[in-house]
TrEMBL record:
Name used for this protein in its record: Cornifelin
Biased composition (Polar residues): 7-32
PANTHER family per UniProt: DUF614 FAMILY PROTEIN-RELATED
Residues in the signal sequence: none
Segments of this protein annotated with the region Disordered: 1-39
Family designation: Belongs to the cornifelin family.
Natural source organism: Owenia fusiformis (Polychaete worm)
Pfam families listed in its UniProt record: PLAC8 (PF04749)
Length: 179
């Protein structure tokens, strides 16, 4: 070896790598394009930024913190069943045409307006839905008794409750943008 190759070890390695890369590659050694890797093949990242450490193993998934309607604390109805003087117009509509009033209520609750004509005990079903969606305390038995004793009064109470829920949602709505 001459003196220059001993003083410059990088130059010596460069010369060796040149001799390795200039050797011809046979057809058996060339990578095959558009072929799937063998079973058990794990690709190795080419960039040091792709793999920065050991993989993270998630042992337990995070749980959502938002409460659903069934998890909210129970509350009572906003108004009593006999508080018809709070909304005289609704009471008149419920007493003079309860089927039409219930059809309108069903549509307002997101149900088909034909429910009062087709579904037996539809008022109880709508009342249970309203209670469960808005976390109102009570039972199916209480709903049956309210509807049986005073069907029109229970319809009016449901209408007032829907109005209350809508007003609560409107007051808690956040407006984003220019004012």
């Amino acid at each position: 070896m001459d003196e220059t190759s001993e003083n410059h070890p990088l130059q010596n390695q460069t010369q060796k790598s040149k001799t390795l890369t200039t050797q011809p590659i046979s057809n058996n050694q060339r990578p095959k394009p558009n072929t799937l890797p063998e079973k058990g093949y794990i690709p190795i990242p080419q960039s040091p930024h792709q793999c920065t450490g050991p993989p993270t193993v998630v042992v337990q998934q995070p749980t959502p913190t938002a409460l659903t309607a069934g998890q909210l604390p129970k509350r009572s109805w906003d108004s009593g069943i006999c508080d018809c003087d709070d909304d005289i117009a609704s009471c008149c509509a419920a007493f003079w045409c309860p089927i039409c009033f219930e059809a309108w209520l069903a549509a307002k609750m997101g149900e088909a307006c034909c429910i009062p004509c087709i579904v037996p005990n539809s008022t109880v079903a709508l009342r249970v839905k309203l209670r469960s969606e808005n976390s109102i305390e009570g039972s199916v038995m209480n709903d049956c008794c309210a509807v049986t004793c005073c069907w029109q009064c229970s319809l009016c109470q449901m209408k007032r409750e829907i109005d209350h829920v809508i007003s609560q949602k409107a007051s808690t709505m956040v407006v984003i943008g220019e004012v």
